[in-house]
Amino acid sequence: LWALLAALRAAWCLLPQSGYLHPDEFFQAPEVMAGDILNLQVYYPWEFLSSFPCRTVVFPLMTSGVTYWAIKSLQQLDICSSCINSYTLLVSPRLLFTILSFILDYSVYRLAPIWEADLWKALVLLAGSYVTLVFYTRTFTNTLEGLLFALLMVLVSSRKSNGSSVEPTSSPLIGVITTAGFFNRPTFLAFALMPLLYWAGLIVDSQKSIKTVINHFLKLILCSCFTAIVFITADTFYFTSMSLDTLYSINKGSLFDVIAQLHEKMVVTPFNFLCYNLNPHNLALHGSHPRVTHFTVNGVMLFGILHILAVGAGFKMLKKYVSQLIQVRSCYRGLPGLLVHSEGNPTLLLFYFVPLAFLSLFSHQEPRFLIPLIVPLVLFSASQNRAVKWKHLIIIFNLLGAFLFGCLHQGGLIPCLFRLEQLIHSPAPSNHPRHYTLLFAHTYMPPRFLLHIKKTDMHVQVIDMAGSGEETLCQTIQHQASNSTYSNCHIFVIIPGTVRGTITKCGISFKNETLIFPHLSMEDPPQMPILSSGNWRSQLGLYILQIHRDQ
Q1: Is the pLDDT score of 215 beyond 80?
Q2: Whether residue 16 has a cis bond before it, omega within 30° of 0
Q3: Beta strands 460-464; 435-440: pairing state
Q4: Which of 176, 207, 212 is nearest to 192 (CA)?
Q5: Separation of alpha carbons 483 and 478, rounded Å
Q6: Most CB atoms within 10 A, among 353, 385, 390, 429?
Q7: Tell me: the pLDDT tens digits for 292-328?
Q8: In contact, 59 and 141? CB cutoff 8 Å
Q9: What is the enclosing helix (H) or strand (E) of 490?
Q10: CA angle in degrees (0–180, nearest 5) for 201-205-207
Q11: Domain residue spans in the chain?
Q12: Is the Cα torsion angle 151, 154, 157, 158 positive or negative in sign?
């Protein structure tokens, strides 16, 4: 069963998945790297602006950058003459992330015996979760955060299956992974806190010499510092475009001048990230949520009954611990009881709930922020046959989640871009070059790189109207239809079926109309009375409308 689910993960990636989860899956890696490496027209998000960069470029280069460099090399070597197209631009980075997602399976395989979980039940829970099938095959920084968190759990869980502790020997790797995770997303510290405390406890318990304990911590700190220097250097070169000539001219000055100039140019992206996100006004621009959203909504949305079971077990553990305190038991008898056996292994619950609690301190709370918690949750759920009696509910929940987020949610936009890319690159008469204006309304941000347009090509204009109102939308369409300076200009409006009626009020006629199915816009949801009528397909579709300019 696990092998079938693993094959499904790979096959669905190649199909590919049409669901569009969030703009960050494109605009925090593939869009940026397609512009830098393939020289395509792209939209650079605010996080990657050199004036105030908030994202490290190291991981985008190591993932999307590597895949785009590979397909570019294949095309330059004439091994594959048409390697670069919308399909390969979408699937190649996703395929790399899908391969990397099996780090989760490896981690569960290693951790299940240590944490007294049923190995194959844990692996099936992991591989069958729609979070693994959908979120972990997408190019999110949250996906990398989850992979690093899983590896960190493996490194710190240095106990034998019989429960006895062994001397931890992974201090350098723990330092590297913790620092890399911090530069990927500074929120990684919330996930790393409990594993690091657990590792520190093992270090202290297993060592009789204070010198050896200090040696472990020194190794961790030194490797963390070295990793930070690597990231800061790479980001500084990328965002300041510091050339070797610039570096040489800096080195001609005195030592103090060199240090001052390097410090002035230095880019520390996590610091900028924290400065931005610790400002409540900035978070409000991205949406504010109640502090309990992760706990009451997002956890259930991602993990279903597994989250609810963990919450129930957590309350029982807390109740038992409070009861022990009231009875004034000794620390020796009370705390080990909390950390070893109480409704499974409570340390896993701490690995799950401590990051959740820290993330809940921020007002901006999205479900994807919690996807790294899947490993401790499936390990906890696979112990003591906790999830077995809920297996039918778990199967139905993950089928619905996979269909909703993998196929339906904004599911027409990627196939629409595939179709437009084919249209734009279709042969045209040399004496009458075509110009295209693509106007997107009430959709997520369209990733421009999927249109495969070179930066030197000026024959395609992309206009993102986001959720503009009827009046603004009509004015823009009328302006584009009447004021184009190109004789052979094709204007397309891409809009969900739920707001298709808005266009009819603009006084514009269309000569071509294409419906892409399915497409669900939660910002403009379909109305139930219309869904129950014969027009349900239109309500769950995305329209490509070509304006009749002759009129």
Answers
A1: yes
A2: yes
A3: parallel
A4: 176
A5: 8
A6: 353
A7: 999 999 999 999 999 999 999 999 888 888 877 777 5
A8: yes
A9: strand 489-496
A10: 120
A11: 1-286, 412-547
A12: negative
Query: Closest Cα to residue 439, out of 508, 381, 531?
Result: 508
For residue 514, the surrounding DSSP H or E stretch is strand 510-516
CB within 8 Å of 190: residues ≥ 6 apart: 354, 355, 358, 359
The 8-class DSSP code of residue 159 comes to: B
Dig out the tokens for 146 from the structure: 């989850």
Residue 514's DSSP bridge partners are 544
Q: Could you tell me the two tokens for 264? A: 């002035």
Q: C-alpha distances in angstroms, 412 versus 276, 337, 473, 517, 538?
A: 33, 53, 20, 6, 12
Residue 223 amino acid letter: C
Give start and end residues of each alpha helix (H) in 39-158.
58-60, 66-76, 86-100, 102-114, 119-128, 130-134, 141-156
Q: Which residue type occupies 233? A: T
Both tokens of 84, joined, read 């670069």
Q: Check residue 384 and give left, alpha or beta (phi > 0: left; psi -120 to 50: alpha).
A: left
Burial (CB count <10 Å: 0-12, 13-18, 19+), residue 361: exposed
Given a contact cutoff of 8 angstroms between Cβ atoms, the answer to whether 42 and 31 are in contact is yes
- CB neighbour list of residue 226: distance below 8 Å, 6 or more residues apart: none
Task: Give CA separation, 550 vs 98, 126, 434, 487, 488, in Å.
Answer: 48, 56, 16, 11, 11
Nearest to 449 by CA among 20, 39, 4, 115: 39
| Start-to-end Cα distance in the chain | 59
Asked if residue 344 lies in contact with residue 386, where contact means CB atoms within 8 angstroms, the answer is yes
CB count, 10 Å around CB of 196?
16
Residue located via tokens 């009861």 = 323
pLDDT of residue 19: 95
Token pair belonging to 42: 């792209």
Model pLDDT for residues 166-206, shown as the tens digit of each residue: 556 688 999 999 999 999 999 999 999 999 999 988 888 77
